[in-house]
Amino acid sequence: MKWPNTKRAEKEGILHVEEVVNRHGSIFRKVHQEEDIGIDGFIEFVASDHSEGLLLAVQVKSGKSYERKDRFAITADRQHLDYWTRFMLPVIIIAYSPSRQLACWKAVADSNSTTIEIPFSHIFDEISMSTSLRNLALTRRDESLLYDAANSIMSDDADQRHRGILLLSQHPKSRVTRLVVQLAGALALDNDPRIVRVAVGVVGFAIAQNKWESFYGRVDHDVHFFARRTCFRFNERHVRQMLFSIDDGDFGPRSVGEALMDCLAKPTASNRQESQPGVD
Questions:
Q1: Strands 91-97, 102-107: parallel, antiparallel or unpaired by DSSP?
Q2: Count of CB atoms within 10 A of residue 207's CB?
Q3: CA–CA separation, 240 and 49 (whole Å)
Q4: Rounded CA separation 35/158 (Å)
């Protein structure tokens, strides 16, 4: 199995960002690759061992192809630019050079072109985390964005629903609440696999957080039991949708989810008999 240099460079970039954020004392929450359609992770700012409720969305670009003489140059298509500028949190691009071991950043909102240029002097480090980046996160601290996220879950547009539940699942003010668990329970039946995966993660985290109480601190046991009751109400349709969405398809020619759906769609000898009129 090949492991291209581009994949290695991408991994190095993510690890460097995670290391800087960790040294700052804050948290970097990676987005699962299957849910990554333009956001690689979220930075959650921590001060004096407490979350500040401040978030930034991050897209990481890593590799020599982005390097110029004194800057990084990243070309983005209009679709990605529109996605980033409409996102409910400020989005920053972090460019990383493995050879220079240098990371630099720029807010997407500051770019008016499909070519995003980031000077080498705009370094992503603990100092910028404490100053410019924290101030950028403060500009969107208004918790009305959480209402907008919840509202977007009711949209007919799958991308909006995905952005909504993704933000609610990451924000420290909302990720372990009964409201978000309730919304996630409803989204477990969504037709979009990305949304189902995030929704299942929300409910699962709310149930399992008490196992990591030493790491997360105080656990809301009321939310824990609410999430368990939500799972008790799941029926066969929920189970089908979750299996179909979560299964990554690496178990053979077809995924387990697809095989299960085929099985359920084909009538067996017993249920064919039950479906015939006049049969007791």
A1: antiparallel
A2: 18
A3: 41
A4: 13
Query: Tell me: the pLDDT tens digits for 135-146?
Result: 999 877 766 788
Q: What angle do CA 115, 140, 186 make, to 5 degrees?
A: 95
Q: Could you report the per-residue pLDDT of 10-58, keeping only the tens digit for each?
A: 889 999 999 999 999 999 999 876 555 689 999 999 998 888 889 999 9
263: left (phi over 0), alpha (psi -120 to 50) or beta: alpha
Nearest to 61 by CA among 52, 73, 51: 73
The Cβ of residue 40 has, within 10 Å, a number of other Cβ atoms equal to: 20
Query: Taking Cα atoms as reference points, which of 175, 137, 133, 168 lies closest to residue 17?
Result: 133
Q: Which two tokens stand for residue 64?
A: 């020599």
- Token duo for residue 135: 């101030």
State residue 45 phi and psi, 5-degree precision: -80, 135
DSSP the chain: ----HHHHHHHHHHHHHHHHHHHHT-EEEEPPGGG-SS--EEEEEEETTEEEEEEEEEEEEESGGGB-SSEEEEE--HHHHHHHHHSSS-EEEEEEETTTTEEEEEEGGG--SSEEEEETTSB-SHHHIIIIIHHHHHTT--THHHHHHHHHTT-S-HHHHHHHHHHHHH-TTTTTSHHHHHHHHHHTT-S-HHHHHHHHHHHHHHHHGGGGHHHH-S--HHHHHHHHHHHHT--HHHHHHHHHHH--STTSSS-HHHHHHHHHHSPPHHHHHHHSTT--
Which amino acid is residue 43, in one-letter code? I
- Unique residue bearing structure tokens 């921590």: 46
